[in-house]
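Suppose you are handed only these lines of text.
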Amino acid sequence: SLTIATGGPSIPQMGATRYAYEVAKTFGMQITDINPGLVPLRFRGEHEAFCRELSGLSIPCTVSCNNVTFKENILFTHRGMSGPAILQISSYWQQGQKIKVNLMPDVDVIDFLLGEQSNRPKSELATVLSSVLPRNFARAFSNRYRSNKPINQLSGKDLLSLSNMLTSWELTPSGTQGYRMAEVSLGGVDTAGLSSRTMESTTVNSLYFIGEAVDVTGPLGGYNFQWAWASGHCAGQFV
Ligand SMILES: Cc1cc2nc3c(=O)[nH]c(=O)nc-3n(C[C@H](O)[C@H](O)[C@H](O)COP(=O)(O)OP(=O)(O)OC[C@H]3O[C@@H](n4cnc5c(N)ncnc54)[C@H](O)[C@@H]3O)c2cc1C
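From them, the structure of the protein bound to flavin-adenine dinucleotide can be written out as follows.
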């Protein structure tokens, strides 16, 4: 028997290769699309500059794409965003799509802004926002995306648009940080060509594929290790 356990192409600097896919193709087996997963996202232009300015700062929020939402932290980086919420959503995001960030998922934002407008009308927007968001973020956000006026100078329409931006901030990543930074590779040897009982190829006797080489990907939280160990254990019963 031959068991292929050479993983996917993520982190080539640690020895990752596409060897498993080459072997599968040699034997006429199907490979699905392969993409980097659990990977930081990149931005261009003003969003990249904004992220760089806040590099190292982390904010709890929700991030959504393709009807999937994760409630975890985002982390601003020199090139874009990372952190668990972004790594998770990157496995669902496709090139050209938007992601939606809710920076205040546990706050009724319009209620909060109206309350602040009557409680401390002369406070600048950045000061108001820094009571619920990190101070550096509140200042950078107010300066870059909204004029940092005293809150009593914002109309009802302004507050509504600000609330929308804080709860549905739409960003279009320019790409991912690629396999160099990806914790997993999405896709792999098509599971339709493998026995789910033994991990043996359904077309080539005694050829087994296990772990990340196979088109099985989990979210953050140990599921990818678990799959590698469980599929290896499974094949080990039969080789
Ligand atoms: C930075 C990082 C953090 C991660 N954190 C987590 C986590 O917290 N939880 C989790 O569940 N998963 C995590 N993962 C994913 C997890 O490590 C993998 O899904 C899992 O290790 C896959 O196991 P595998 O045995 O299939 O492949 P791998 O562990 O990738 O092992 C494949 C081995 O084959 C070798 N190889 C490749 N090509 C060849 C060749 N041609 N000849 C000889 N050898 C070759 C590689 O060098 C490697 O040693 C993380 C991955 C990375 C990169």
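What can we learn from it? The CA atoms of residues 191 and 215 lie 6 Å apart. The two ends are 6 Å apart (CA to CA).
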